[in-house]
Amino acid sequence: MSKTIAVLAVLFAAGLITGPVAAQAQEVFAKVDVNGDGGLDLTEFTGFIDAAAEAGKPNAKKIQANQFYAKAFARIDKNKDGLVTKNEIAAMR
């Protein structure tokens, strides 16, 4: 994943972008959402965290360094349906 895409993913997740840039971030989510179901399973979420870590996000780096992907996924997946949605990611800020 390119650095630009990683940065957009992080900004989108933090709810810090709107307008045309938000549309670009929607595309980033779609790229990470490999199967296109509108949510990230654990494997896709791992890619999302890795991209955020690459973009320099401290929490993502911590998750990556400690291999806490499943723990972070479980915390963010509020409705426990096995998918992390855009809304659940945005709510983690």
Description:
By secondary structure, the chain is mainly alpha-helical. It has one domain (3-90): Recoverin, domain 1 (Orthogonal Bundle). It has helices at 3-13, 19-32, 42-54, 58-66, 69-76, 86-90. The model has no long low-confidence stretch (mean pLDDT 77).
Short description:
The protein has 93 residues and is an all-alpha fold. The protein is built from six helices and no strands.
What is the number of beta strands? 0
Give the number of helices.
6
Shape: globular
The SS-based structural class is: mainly alpha
The separation of the N and C termini measures 23 Å
CATH architecture: Orthogonal Bundle
Roughly what is the average pLDDT, rounded to an integer? 77
Q: Biggest sheet, open or closed, and with what strands and sense?
A: none
CATH class: Mainly Alpha
> How much helix, percentage-wise, in residues?
55-70%
Our count of domains comes out at 1
The poorly predicted ranges are: none
Instruction: Evaluate the radius of gyration.
Output: 12 Å
Give, in order, the helices and strands. Answer: HHHHHH
Q: What percentage of amino acids are in beta strands?
A: under 5%
Per the CATH scheme, the topology name is: Recoverin, domain 1
